């Protein structure tokens, strides 16, 4: 299954201690880059969060944001850490002693210090287990969203592949006419000029023109690349880098095809081919 790198997912878990809410955002990136924003009391889960995301995703910049709302117990939902509060007060007094005219400080300043007041104690094992299970649900939703977007990309790519195949078929079928067309054009010009030419030399020149305009090798390689692109799409999985490489190879052969073109139709076909390849390449930038 082909996956897109762009997606969003949100999951909530309701428990006796409160509510955990995960929001995951994923965008394009060359490699997998995971960042997390967790409440202070759950920072130790950062490594596990990254590991769980890496176990599910292969590419993309993934932002993981966790919000936790604790339910109140009794009249208040918080409790004071008196030891931390004392250390903060001592630090404030030490700083004030170094200042000539210190501004007034109050209890609110102390309470604002991270960790001085905190939610009432809950069972951390239960809390962390619930949070990680909620993360799993969010990852399921994110993966499903990436799959749905990937399916849309595959449909678009297959349409472009069919269009490229039609161009190659037309170009291949018209290839045998090149020698005859080149001979006809030369004969018409010579007739207009009323010039007698050496027929053997004329055939040699026509053969040289035909050899320079021969694109059978380029057409074969283009055809092989198309087959490989379809195989990669059918295989699924993390295929973005492989598809990007194949787009480069298709574009290179399309450029060579255009440079060897000796008639307007083939030049036009080469331009159309490069347009289709570029449209595919832009979409592939979003494939995992």
Strand content: 5-15%
Strand order of the largest sheet: 1-2-4-3
Q: Please, how many domains?
A: 3
Report the major sheet. Answer: 4 strands, mixed
User: Cα distance, first to last residue?
Assistant: 10 Å
- Rg is 34 Å
Number of beta-strand segments: 6
Secondary-structure content class: alpha+beta
Write the CATH fold name of the largest domain: Butyryl-CoA Dehydrogenase, subunit A, domain 3
Which descriptor suits the 3D outline? elongated
Helix content: 55-70%
User: Which residues sit in consecutive blocks of at least 5 with pLDDT less than 50?
Assistant: none
- Overall average residue pLDDT: 85
CATH architecture of the largest domain: Up-down Bundle
